[in-house]
Amino acid sequence: MKALVSGGNGFLGSHVVAALRESGDSVRVLDAVSRDASAGVEQITTDLLTSERLESAFEGIDVLVHLAASLRGRPEEILGNTVDGTRRLLDAMARSATRRIVLASSLSVYDWSRLETSVSEDAPTLDRSSMQALDAYAQAKTLQEQLTRQFAREHGFTLTVLRPAVLWGRGVWAAFLLGQRFAGVQTVVAPSAPIRLVYVENAADAFVRAARRSDGGELVVNLIDDPQLTTWEYAGIVQRSAGGVRVPLPYAVGLFGARLASRLLGRARTLPHFLQPARFEALHKPVSVSSRRARETLGWTPRFSFVEALARAESPHG
């Protein structure tokens, strides 16, 4: 199998490329950031918004693994780069012989304000109205997923959408899931709730399995590691490197404070996420997420337990 991996030089992308190579697959990376090619990996350094080389990137490709998305920048940049870049890439794919696509989506596409105790792949996602209360990343990933689904249906692509929990690994600790940090004090929201994480190498394994899927149609799966520790316990691990003290904050108290602040200060997006009710819910609502569908349809189970993953993340060679 030969895979085209957009965003293949990023945090998730580099692990997906490594996992594909470990499985014996050939890889062509499409990324705006250049990187020295390793054995079995071609590199195409280009911008999805401006490149005239996108169609040729699909030559000999069996599956597109689309990971490229903007994480930072002005809201209009995040939306434009992610959505318009995806549209140009899919236009090029439609003119090629490639008919399988794996899309990296996110749990951020769910409408967390409408969720109660658990979330499955059939739970409501953000619509045009509800996404306006959230950050540009959540909006971009929602629109990207909708656009990709539309293309897949129009052109008969086999589409697998993976919605990972927050990725973590060496150098990436996802501390924003804990709450706001003030000087040396780290608030820990919903301290007794399981934290929503997936170790990056575990996620990469799922992308390889999804890339091999050829039974046609559309499949959407959540990716999350087994709930092995609470938000409070994870905060203690982060604290080892960040220092300071942990202060527990019940979810209901934090949400009340965010709602009060938004009424007093307005709904400006310049407010920190801690004071925006919709973003507070999306990050901290104690709702359980299951990866059962990924296990049943892709045969995926997390390769590394949290203890094993932590040892790899803390190793200078992990």
Protein described:
This protein is of the alpha/beta class. It has 9 helices and 14 strands. It has helices at residues 11-22, 75-94, 136-155, 200-211, 231-242, 251-265, 277-284, 292-298, 306-314; strands at 2-6, 26-31, 41-45, 63-66, 100-104, 118-119, 158-164, 166-168, 181-182, 185-189, 197-199, 218-223, 245-249, 288-289. Strands 3-2-1-4-5-7-12 form a 7-stranded parallel β-sheet, with helices on both faces. The mean pLDDT is 92.
Please specify the SSE layout and strand pairing.
Elements: E1 2-6, H1 11-22, E2 26-31, E3 41-45, E4 63-66, H2 75-94, E5 100-104, E6 118-119, H3 136-155, E7 158-164, E8 166-168, E9 181-182, E10 185-189, E11 197-199, H4 200-211, E12 218-223, H5 231-242, E13 245-249, H6 251-265, H7 277-284, E14 288-289, H8 292-298, H9 306-314
